[in-house]
Hints:
The structure holds 2 protein chains of 2 kinds. By secondary structure, chain A is mainly α.
Amino acid sequence: MSDQTQKEPQAHEAQKPAEAKGPGPQEHPQSADAHVAPARPAEGRPPGGRPPEGRSRGEGRPGEGRGNGRGPREGGREGAKRGRRGFFRKKKVCRFCVDRVDYIDYKKPEQLMTFIQERGKIVPRRITGTCSRHQRWLAEAIKRARNIALMPFGGAR
Amino acid sequence: MEERLYDLIFICRPATPEEEIDKIIATLENTVAERGGKVEKKEKWGARKMAYRVMRHREGYYVLMVVRAAQSDTVHELERRLKVNDAVIKYMTVRLDEDMKRQKRLQQRRERKASRRPRAPRAGHGHPGGEQPAAAVQQQ
């Protein structure tokens, strides 16, 4: 508990300056996007997702004419420099939201395995970046899978 | 009563002969049919490693059935039959219809959103600059 209370204000501090010193009010959503965008390839999205839809949407956007001029990398670097303590904290995105998952299937333990620790614990969402709703579904799916011996309760044997 | 959808998974001892497993499946199907239900899907996953030992077995023969039950005692009876059978070492029933309903609702909502505003603010997901590296990663 104490661990949490300590951590939260820190996280706020790290984010606030990044927002406050933004280049301008209109560019806000832009830079926010930029934070997200470079993180995705590194994150290694599961191939089962729905990238085609996302891409077609993205192609619709260049009509606005802003996005192409400044690459997302720029935004990312700016964000990096702005952290008060000087190190860059990558913004985490819920992987299920990116893929627009509506149901997490407990019958696919291979997918769920990435969300448990070595000793079988469910990885907290402050580490994976999963949103609260998906974490809830995920936890349920993992627990169901454990029940029918598809996933371990305490570390693979 | 409205119909309910269930996942019924059970695990048999790995040494169980195939015919016996088929027999178990047949009796379960009968039980469901007697009560006005329907077996929508049956899958034999075959022998696979279990994540932990169950009754000293490390492997088990998994069978999945998706059951649409019309009567409330269907699941009770199915579970009773599985409990009685010696070949079955583990089983689980999960109610699915509520999850499916939720899934459908979310899907519909998203479609509605997409049709209402073709260029919704969430299009930020598909940032034009961000797509390049993503595509590159997938090609590799």
